[in-house]
Design goal:
The complex is a heterodimer of chains A (about 290) and B (about 425).
Chain A lengths: L1 H33 L6 H19 L1 H22 L9 H23 L15 E4 L2 E4 H23 L1 H11 L1 H6 L5 H22 L9 H16 L4 H21 L7 H12 L14
Antiparallel strand pairs in A: 1-2
Helix pairs in contact in A: 1-5, 1-8, 1-9, 1-10, 2-3, 2-4, 2-8, 2-9, 3-8, 5-6, 9-10, 9-11
Chain B lengths: L1 H4 L6 H18 L3 H9 L1 E7 L6 H20 L8 E7 L3 H13 L5 E4 L3 H14 L3 E3 L5 H4 L7 E3 L4 H14 L7 E7 L2 H16 L3 E8 L7 H10 L3 E5 L3 H13 L5 E3 L4 H7 L8 E3 L8 H14 L5 H20 L4 H9 L3 E2 L7 E3 L6 E2 L3 E5 L12 E3 L25
Parallel strand pairs in B: 1-2, 1-3, 3-4, 4-5, 6-7, 6-8, 8-9
Antiparallel strand pairs in B: 10-14, 11-12, 12-13, 14-15
Helix pairs in contact in B: 4-14, 5-6, 8-9, 11-12, 14-15
Classes of the chains: A mainly alpha (about 290), B alpha/beta (about 425).
């Protein structure tokens, strides 16, 4: 029985890791291509939760979860076009300051618009409750979440590896100068990457809203985990981020099973260990512009 | 000492006072005395409360409550003919709270300190108060330890302590036959407050033949409870018990409903704002509160009407408690005709009764400085009975009952290790 319990934590941890992936992959993409550490990524996550909450009240749950990431993605386009774009080639400290400031502005804006008190958010009653598969207990809602994450990840992978768009983006990560020499402007690609990354964060917020506390600082809370995953996974690697997200979810679950008090510390220990042996992260590539 | 007082050379302190005096005189002479006058005339109160983090939402209500009391007091002529000036700041964490409090007393001219929701920060503020020999009115912190082994002469406690919360819920559970012989599993907030609440809960379980199968300490920034929920299912308890705090309780309620675990749950700490955030379909169980907006007293009705009109939302218990706390402080200053901490302490210690907008008045116990007052258990309304999305909480009658002493649920002198 004890083994089944442990296995249950492992599976549950992997599901949670999949959810973290929604945030971490966007963060990693924006950094790999643009060289910008987007500290405002969590703000888009929070916005996703709030916007979908408003839409859910008016249109219902499914339209809310679908439309919110699109709206936030449009905001992401404006964010890239008017702010982020000016900082790709400048000192990284400037883009850090910009996105850090933006995160604070966004959090306060949410506080002014919706208030500091957390808002109630609901899910359709069909999605509530548990599903027993043999000895394993799953939350129905999280299984749906897992399905959405798998779909999105497959889409992103196909986009990056099987399309012309993806080839340019991957080339842009390694040799932006060569891409430019071939007469390809990276700017529109970057806009798309930022819009995609930000939409994924918003989708994460929209999906996690019904089971988390929807409050102005929710973005800041989740960002730490997302950063840890990007660092563990390594830059420029799709599978690195996937692996790291699953690993963080798994390690947290297993740690809580054995040493509950160390649950939140476990991912930092993991990060420490990975960086000791692989300073570029698990599957991180050597990216010349960052060396 | 005597010699020093007769020194020919003025001490630095005197010199600066002289300079200040000269400046004041100069300012008066050149024609803006009003400014100097009004600055010196205000009674400043240092107010700290968490505005960010897992207690931030409660802190926002706290500020709205104390601000409303300030406006009412000042509109009615202030205290001792002087306006009150409440300086509210985010306490952030225990060490920031303590350095801000020290600054408020030293530099900002605060005469007393008030506020706090986090027990950990309240503990450091009580130490600042004792060190500076100034009064600290701890408003929203609930750990027994604060008014127990960490009590001091300068700190007074307004909110109900953990023992009262556990006993208020405990009475309802005993009535419903949910304690004796039952197996409990608890989740506890991993900081001073949670540890203290767990200790009190364990005592209650042991005294009433209940068994605690297990307990998990949960960090205050945890957003995913699923591993803990799996552990609850593995333990198969009769009742699940929450000793969580702030946002944690909301997260717990939502994810407990998400996983649809079959065990009934109860909790020893919940604020109405956190219950509202969980939503009607996730809420259940029995919980304690120090005050609620449906109390049928003229005072509460007037307060709720004024607050709702001003802010467009219902006040929750932290708004109420800050509101009455400042009223208590103002009353004390008016009746003692002083802002001196020693005089205020003597006034509180002599058992003066205060209107708390409840059916019965309250008073501070002289030996542990705890405000004695009524508490209320609450639970969920039957499905479909809620009028709107804030109307799903069903509040019980006041405990202790109208004929009982206000002290029956509190710690006794034998149990409490406080000595001043």
């Amino acid at each position: 029985m004890a083994f089944v319990f442990l296995l249950e934590q492992v599976v549950n941890g992997l599901v949670l890791g999949g959810y973290y992936l929604l945030l971490a992959l966007g963060l990693s993409l924006i950094f790999s291509v643009g060289g910008v550490v987007n500290l405002a990524h969590g703000a888009f996550y929070a916005l996703g939760a709030y916007v979908s909450l408003e839409l859910t009240r008016r249109l219902g749950f499914a339209p809310g979860v679908v439309i919110a990431p699109v709206l936030v993605g449009v905001l992401g386009i404006a964010f890239e076009r008017f702010l982020l774009r000016r900082f790709y080639t400048s000192d990284p400290i400037l883009s850090l300051l910009l996105t850090f400031g933006l995160a604070m502005v966004a959090e306060q804006a949410i506080r002014m618009l919706w208030g500091a008190a957390p808002l109630p958010s609901t899910m359709p009653s069909e999605l509530r409750g548990q599903l027993m598969l043999g000895e394993f207990m799953f939350s129905r809602y999280r299984l749906l979440l897992l399905a959405v994450v798998l779909t999105v990840m497959t889409g992103i992978w196909l986009l990056l590896h099987k399309t012309a768009f993806g080839r340019v983006v991957r080339a842009g990560v390694q040799r932006p100068d060569m891409v430019a020499a071939l007469g390809i402007r990276l700017a529109p690609y970057m806009t798309t990457i930022v819009a995609l990354g930000v939409s994924m964060a918003a989708l994460g917020g929209a999906l996690f809203g019904p089971i988390a506390v929807v409050h102005p600082a929710m973005g800041t809370e989740i960002m730490t985990v997302a950063f840890v995953i990007v660092v563990i996974g390594g830059l420029g690697s799709f599978w690195g981020v996937v692996l790291a997200a699953l690993l963080v979810g798994l390690v947290r679950g297993v740690t809580i099973h054995f040493v509950p008090a160390a649950g939140e510390a476990s991912m930092y220990v993991l990060m420490f260990l990975v960086l000791m042996f692989r300073p570029r992260g698990l599957l991180g590539e050597r990216i010349e512009k960052f060396e | 000492m005597q010699d020093n007082d007769h020194r020919a050379v003025p001490s630095p302190r005197r010199r600066s006072m002289l300079q200040a005096g000269a400046l004041t005189a100069g300012a008066s002479a050149i024609g803006f005395p009003a400014l100097v006058h009004s600055q010196a005339d205000k009674i400043r109160i240092g107010h700290l409360t968490p505005l960010t983090g897992f207690l931030g939402a409660l802190g926002e209500y706290a500020v709205l409550g104390i601000r409303m009391a300030t406006e009412e007091i000042n509109a009615a002529g202030g205290v001792l003919g002087r306006p009150l000036d409440v300086l509210s700041e985010d306490s952030v964490n225990p060490s920031v709270a303590s350095s801000k409090a020290q600054r408020m007393l030293e530099r900002d001219g605060a005469v007393v300190l008030m506020g706090e929701i986090s027990s950990a920060s309240a503990l450091t503020l009580a130490q600042v108060a004792a060190r500076n020999k100034r009064l600290f009115m701890s408003i929203g912190a609930r750990s027994d330890e604060l008014r127990g082994k960490n009590c001091n002469r300068f700190t007074f406690y307004v909110d109900i302590p953990n023992t009262v919360m556990v006993n208020a819920v405990g009475q309802a559970l005993l009535r419903d036959n949910m304690v004796q012989g039952k197996k409990f599993f608890s989740l506890t907030a991993d900081y001073l407050f949670g540890h203290d609440l767990l200790r009190v809960a364990k005592k209650f379980f042991a005294a009433n033949q209940a068994q605690l199968l297990g307990d998990e300490l949960v960090a205050t920034d945890v957003t995913d409870f699923s591993p803990y929920l799996l552990k609850i299912r593995q333990a198969r308890p009769d009742v699940v018990c929450s000793n969580l705090a702030g946002n944690q309780v909301t997260t717990f309620l939502k994810q407990y409903a998400e996983f649809g675990l079959p065990y009934p749950f109860i909790g020893f700490n919940l604020n109405t704002a956190d219950a509202w955030a969980a939503g009607a379909e996730n809420f259940g169980g029995v919980w304690p509160t120090v005050w609620h907006h449906e109390l049928d007293t003229p005072g509460t009705k007037a307060f709720v009407a004024a607050f709702t009109q001003k802010h467009g939302k219902l006040p929750e218990n932290h708004a109420w408690i800050e509101y009455v706390s400042l009223k208590i402080m103002a009353q004390a200053m008016n009746e003692t005709k002083s802002t001196d901490s020693d005089k205020l302490i003597a006034f509180f210690e002599k058992g003066t009764e205060f209107d708390l907008l409840k059916a019965r008045k309250g008073y501070f116990r002289s030996w542990d400085h705890q405000l004695m007052q009524e508490a209320y258990p609450f639970t969920a309304k039957p499905k479909g009975k809620a009028k709107d999305r804030f109307d799903f909480l069903a509040f019980g009658a006041a405990v202790p009952g109208p004929k009982e002493s206000l002290e029956v649920l509190a710690t006794t002198k034998q149990e409490n290790t406080c000595s001043m």
